[in-house]
Amino acid sequence: MNFGDIFVPALMVFILCYGLAKKVDIVNVFCEGATENLKIAVGLIPMLILLMTAVGMFTSSDAADIIAKLLRPVTTFLGFPEECIPLAIVRPISGSGALACLETILSSVSPDSYSGRVASVLMGSTETTFYTIAVYFSAIKQKAYPSVFAAACLSDLMGFVFSALAVRLFFS
């Protein structure tokens, strides 16, 4: 038995005992919290449907391939592998689409190749930026500012460049 096996049950027992000691109506407080979070979840559904539809349209079209061809000279200059360009395009938009791109890359080249390693590092060090921004700003009912998108895109770009650099530094 390890610590992880007993942590969650022990935490639940602690919360129950603490609530009882403070004379809190635990069931009522739990129901209030669940109701509030359910309202937030229902409010996110339209944004999630929009994102899923847009991602489906983007991945089923040849848009990623067209963008990859346009970016190829720049990525070649930066030492970013050609096979990873579609992953870099899809990753900020869709986690599942990026996972499919990663699977395609790893099945076409060796996972221990330069491209396979860059794809793996890129997948682990970047975020589904547009999804995250849409969900968080939708939850707080605010409009996302252009500066948020600019900063997020810049951080994604740095993640792409530094994933290739890190692989070159650590595996060359």
From TrEMBL:
Q: What are the UniProt keywords, alphabetically?
A: Membrane, Transmembrane, Transmembrane helix
Its domain of life reads: Bacteria
Annotated ranges, domain Nucleoside transporter/FeoB GTPase Gate: 42-142
User: Pfam families of this UniProt entry?
Assistant: Gate (PF07670)
Supply one GO CC term from the record: plasma membrane
- Report TM segments: 40-59, 148-171
Q: Which InterPro entries match?
A: Gate_dom, SpmB
Can you say what this protein is called? Nucleoside recognition domain-containing protein
> Origin organism of this chain?
Ruminococcus bicirculans (ex Wegman et al. 2014)
